[in-house]
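My hope is that you will study the record closing this message with an eye to the fold:
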Amino acid sequence: MTATGSSPASCAEPNTKEAPGSDTDIEKFAAAEAHLRNTTVHNISWQGVTVTVKDRETGLPKTLVDNVHGLVKAGEICALMGPSGSGKTTLLNYLASRPTHARSATGSVHLDGAPPPSRAAFRALSCFVEQEDALLGALTVRETLSFSARLSSSTGAGLVGSRGKREVEARIDGLLDAFGLREQADALVGTPLRKGISGGQKRRLGVASQLITSPKVMFLDEPTSGLDSAAGWEVVSFLRGVAKRNNLIVIASIHQPSTSTFNLFDKLLLMSHGKTHYFGPVSAVTPHYESLGHRMPLQVNPAEFLLELVNTDFAVRRESAVQHLDEMQLAWTGSSTAMELTAALAAADGNSSGGIEPDAAGKKPSFLSLVLTLLHRSFVKSYRDVVVYAIRLAMYTGLAIMAGTVWLRLSATQSSIQPFINSIFYGSAFMSFMAVAYTPAYIEDYMQYIKEKRNGLYGATAMMVSNFLVGIPYLFIFALVFSSISYWLTNFQPTAQAFFTWVLWVFLDLLAAESLVVLLSSLFPSFVIALALIAFANGLWMCVNGFMVPPDELNVFYKYVFHYWDYQKYVFENMMVNEFSERVYTCATTVTGCQCMWQTDLADQCLIRGQGILDEYGYQPGYMGKDVGIMMGIVFGYRLVAWIVLKLKE
């Protein structure tokens, strides 16, 4: 079959048309998939899994998963199925060693009959594919797989360096062929402004990007959600083919699959109200319920039939429906299939070889390699996705033209002093305010980080360092472009030293503003919430930076609680010093003589020394080095708190 135009006609058969047809092609195809072959983990089992949360309405304990058992062997693909609220996603998260936000969670998860040596070791052997998989839209399909390989714990930079890029490229080519993405290899995943691959292709790419890390156990959260029946069948069919060929263990929660998709699974765990109602081969589920007096009608989707059977949400007589559900659950507990599961679990524990070695997943890339890979990926995204920096460059250029033409060619006279001050405030404040445009791009990076962190690829430190470094050159370009236009149009102090000092403070302003965006977006990774908080914070900084109210007149609370760590305060102050400390302005002359609005030692010459303006604000030159250090401390502080937030969310 191919990626497009496929049909689920042969619904119960695994995909046999994925590999090329000739013997030579098949050998190449098999070699490309060699890294996927699982010879490490023979089975995964779980016993007595119970997860309890606090009910939001009553405040009482509520059991989401109740004493669930299961066993899946290598080469099998298992479906977790049940009505909404049945506990399948909670169980999947527990099995994958992911957060369940539970009040209490008990039960054992074993690999080959023994518990994993550590959570990190388990995550190195497994992967989790989200329901809405986070993919960077600015990357191509091939680049997505390539970067996943470079970040992978088993196919990272150490492998690239020792065995060469050809092996990694062969792996990528094998996955492109296995998931029918060869023709889309160089197509973009897709951004809000550039159309990319289809929804079904994105799902297959999400699975492939996890397979490139050579997992032995795969967990998938509703991989067919949002897809039509044909696209859903394609995703599961490709997944089944790869799992069968390479002896992988696959466990997927799935919601109301089509008949053809349902028949692709080897095993089924059917849940309702957190309890197991069936676990065993898909082929035996219909006979089991027929033995209970529930014969499946002809030409009915078995998945729909089973879900309706164990769903009490829409029952007319709820009490009798719940009672009947409990009776079916008890019947399952005493069934021969349940007894076979108990025996299989005992046999798996009895055949334990002592567990999986902690280093079974291979060597992890170094921290430097991770940072360089993330930098490379972020750089590709930065120049390809206009939302990241191109739109901001256009915004800052427009702001520079507007500011430069509104305050056009101000003269060195006292009538221009207040316009100079207004221009300094406007430029510095709104440059930082407009950094909010970085929010959607960072949230995309954040979601990618959460996914890759949970799959054990890298941590908060590599994320924060790479994110900080990739922005530095772009922010400097923004500062230089804005300054080159607005500075000379406005006619600030016309010296090279003053100009480059101005550029420095615009750059530090942007650096601090973007760090604030990173912090607040990490705390609240929702565009609307982050946007509101960033706007509020910048509004507060504008009020207390020294322009609206001189520092000596500022309310004591705002002065000592916010003013001294307001980065806009240091930018505004040093831009004022840069303009006024070494410049003089002419006073107004009238028929009665010279009229100076600021009285300085040059009043007898009908001039105003710029330091006189600074004295009104309490500003003095000579503190630039100290203020640069404070600004870097603020930037570092924002990043440090953002790093702590990311660590706490792990």
Observations:
- Confidence is low (pLDDT under 50) at residues 1-26, 154-163.
- The chain has two domains: 23-349, 367-648.
